[in-house]
């Protein structure tokens, strides 16, 4: 073998450990300092285990133990595992929103992998923004990487009723405000709804994004459906560690998986799952990191063709454990195989078609046949009009059919503080036909585009039995929530989008079938308001927040940082 052939076979980590130089000696010293033997790390594939465990991320509470199982798999395959902690984004705990920090996690993952002597990675996470953040960083760095989903939590139960996190939190909060349950019952629900580590067991953003990671090819077959507390999950962790070693030897990088066809697969799976509206942001961000064109209209086009067949809350009735027992994602993908590019490569070195084979569906009530969808409405629709020239999204499958075409007068809240101060006042000028509008909740206005889009129903209307109305904002909405909520209105109000120009009493038309969202005022009046608009004062940010405010783009572009998207890979660091 020539010297050139030998050098081509060298692993990235060999640059740190192999040379007989002072600097390489220092690298070896530090490994020996930790009690490692030379044979543990010299000449072996080094696998980074990027772990987003945290005491304040209950969805990830089990990931320290799963990291040990990953290490077992890496050792068994002849690799050397190193665990690298990364920013943990516990969706409920982090304020104002984990979306503000998704890009920070992506930057951290990229630089962790770039700056350390690692040849590949196992990415461990699952809570909402953790999945796209981990994958965005891995795509940008382009080392062999496999994703290990945290897995959904156990199903909730209360007084004989199955509870879904998020979905029933919203439902029973409205009932508490309406006076149909008392505070003692509310506290019982608190203690019964989230019963184990793991992500939300509804089809929220967590379950959506881990499923889409599998559809893109980043997860071992069926891995995204396994509950967090199932013994299969421990085995998945070990298998992921072992497979990472093989991926390094095969040089199976994200750039070999990321094709437009893979994203088309993710769009089809998202539609069939009735996935979270947040996927419309995260998939675009992932595609831009891979330098692949993807637009909002692609989501709408696929959702028109692929019906929602996963009967999971909030669009359906069941929970993720039921989905797993019905056959999981492999079964769902086999049912929509005609809509998939089966030739796409995945992390196990096989094609998507080989992975799903003829995976059976064990329960047609949970994974419906294509001709018996969960809803006659699509899982996502993209709206445009003078109120959303760059687009807005709605989840019709989780909305009220009677409100799919609606015209009503606007009740405007200028920001979240204004909403919280007035929403339950008896003198709020609102009725069931009104359209609730929240401004200044977008990427810059939030900041971070928080999940405020499922605006609460005014208390005076709850008391009259109203449980849904048209709600419009430039915010996001939790994937676990339901209702006739138009979100991601772009451009956002904080940058002068038309949403900022809505006045109380203006009429707004929503027509989902026509994909229209219109502010019903004359064009010259809209032009006058546009000319008179003055940018609101934003509190100057410091540190990361300042970078965020300068660089974040709008929802239809993925809310990524402009300097990180659509760029060529950054050169490797020198070893000096």
Distance between the termini: 28 Å
User: What is the count of helical runs?
Assistant: 22
Architecture of the largest domain, according to CATH?
A: 3-Layer(aba) Sandwich
Low-confidence stretches: 1-8
Strand content: 5-15%
Explain what you see.
It is a single chain. The protein is of the alpha/beta class and 576 residues long. It folds into 4 domains: 34 residues, no CATH class; 272 residues, Rossmann fold (3-Layer(aba) Sandwich); 29 residues, no CATH class; 152 residues, IlvD/EDD C-terminal domain-like (Glucose Oxidase, domain 1), CATH 3.50.30.80. It has 22 helices and 14 strands. The strands form 3 sheets. An 8-stranded mixed sheet has the order 7-8-12-11-10-9-13-14. A 4-stranded parallel sheet has the order 2-1-3-4, sandwiched between helices. Helix 6 packs parallel to helix 7, helix 7 packs parallel to helix 10 and helix 10 runs antiparallel to helix 13. The longest helix has 20 residues. It is globular. The chain starts with a helix and ends in a 25-residue tail after the last helix. The N terminus is likely disordered.
In short:
The chain is an alpha/beta fold.
Descriptors for this entry?
single chain, 576 residues, alpha/beta, Rossmann fold, 8-stranded mixed β-sheet, 4-stranded parallel β-sheet, 14 strands, disordered N terminus
Helix-strand layout with pairing:
Layout: H1 3-9, H2 14-17, H3 22-33, H4 38-41, E1 46-51, H5 63-76, E2 80-85, H6 102-115, E3 120-125, H7 130-141, E4 145-149, E5 156-158, E6 161-163, H8 167-178, H9 183-193, H10 205-216, H11 231-250, H12 254-257, H13 260-273, H14 279-289, H15 296-305, H16 320-325, H17 328-335, H18 352-356, E7 381-385, E8 388-394, E9 405-413, H19 416-422, E10 435-438, H20 459-462, E11 471-473, E12 485-490, E13 507-511, E14 516-519, H21 523-532, H22 544-551
Parallel strand pairs: 1-2, 1-3, 3-4, 9-10, 10-11, 11-12
Antiparallel strand pairs: 5-6, 7-8, 8-12, 9-13, 13-14
């Amino acid at each position: 073998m020539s010297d050139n052939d030998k050098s081509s076979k060298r692993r990235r980590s060999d640059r740190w450990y192999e040379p007989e130089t002072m600097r390489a000696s220092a690298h070896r010293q530090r490994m020996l300092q930790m009690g490692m033997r030379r044979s543990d790390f010299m000449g072996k594939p080094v696998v980074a285990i990027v772990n987003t465990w945290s005491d304040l991320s209950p969805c990830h509470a089990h990931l320290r133990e799963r990291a040990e199982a990953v290490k077992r798999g890496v050792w068994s395959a002849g690799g050397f595992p190193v665990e690298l902690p990364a920013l943990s984004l516990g969706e409920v705990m982090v304020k104002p929103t984990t979306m503000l920090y998704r890009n920070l996690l992506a930057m951290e993952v990229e630089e962790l992998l770039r700056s350390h002597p690692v040849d590949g990675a196992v990415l461990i996470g699952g809570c909402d923004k953790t999945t796209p953040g981990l994958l965005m960083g891995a795509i940008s760095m382009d080392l062999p990487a496999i994703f290990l989903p945290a897995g959904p939590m156990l199903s909730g139960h209360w007084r004989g009723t199955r509870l879904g996190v998020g979905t029933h939190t919203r439902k029973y909060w409205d009932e508490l405000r309406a006076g149909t349950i008392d505070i003692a019952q509310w506290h019982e629900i608190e203690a019964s709804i989230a019963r184990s580590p793991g992500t939300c067991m509804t089809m929220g953003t967590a379950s959506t994004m881990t499923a889409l990671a599998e559809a893109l090819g980043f997860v071992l077959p069926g891995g995204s459906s396994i509950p967090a507390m199932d013994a299969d999950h421990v085995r998945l962790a070990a298998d992921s560690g072992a497979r990472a070693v093989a991926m390094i030897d095969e040089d199976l990088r994200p750039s070999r998986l990321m094709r437009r066809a893979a994203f088309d697969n993710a769009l089809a799976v998202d539609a069939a799952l009735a996935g979270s509206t947040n996927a419309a942001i995260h998939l675009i961000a992932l595609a831009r990191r891979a330098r692949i064109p993807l637009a909002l209209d692609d989501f709408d086009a696929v959702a028109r063709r692929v019906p929602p067949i996963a009967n999971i809350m909030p669009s359906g009735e069941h929970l993720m454990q039921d989905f797993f027992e019905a056959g999981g994602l492999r079964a769902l993908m086999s049912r929509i195989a005609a809509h998939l590019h089966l030739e796409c490569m995945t992390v196990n070195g096989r094609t998507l078609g080989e992975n799903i084979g003829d995976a059976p569906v064990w329960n047609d009530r949970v994974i419906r046949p294509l001709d018996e969808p969960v809803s006659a409405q699509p899982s996502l629709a993209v709206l445009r009009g003078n109120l959303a020239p760059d687009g807005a999204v709605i989840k019709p499958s989780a909305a009220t059919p009677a409100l799919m075409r609606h015209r009503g007068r606007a009740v405007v809240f200028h920001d979240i503080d204004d909403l919280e101060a007035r929403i339950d006042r008896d003198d709020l000028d609102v009725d069931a036909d009104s359209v609730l509008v929240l401004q200044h909740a977008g990427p810059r206005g939030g900041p971070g585009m928080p999940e405020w889009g499922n605006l609460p129903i005014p208390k005076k209307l709850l008391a009259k039995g109203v449980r849904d109305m048209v709600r419009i904002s430039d915010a996001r909405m939790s994937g676990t929530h339901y209702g006739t909520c138009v979100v991601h209105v772009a451009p956002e109000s904080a940058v002068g989008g038309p949403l900022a120009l809505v006045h109380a009493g203006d009429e707004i038309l929503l027509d989902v079938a026509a994909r229209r969202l219109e502010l019903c005022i004359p064009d010259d009046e809209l032009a006058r308001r546009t000319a008179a608009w003055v940018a609101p004062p934003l509190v100057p940010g410091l540190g990361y927040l300042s970078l965020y405010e300068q660089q974040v783009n709008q929802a239809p572009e993925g809310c990524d940082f402009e300097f990180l998207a659509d760029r060529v890979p950054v050169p490797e660091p020198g070893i000096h």
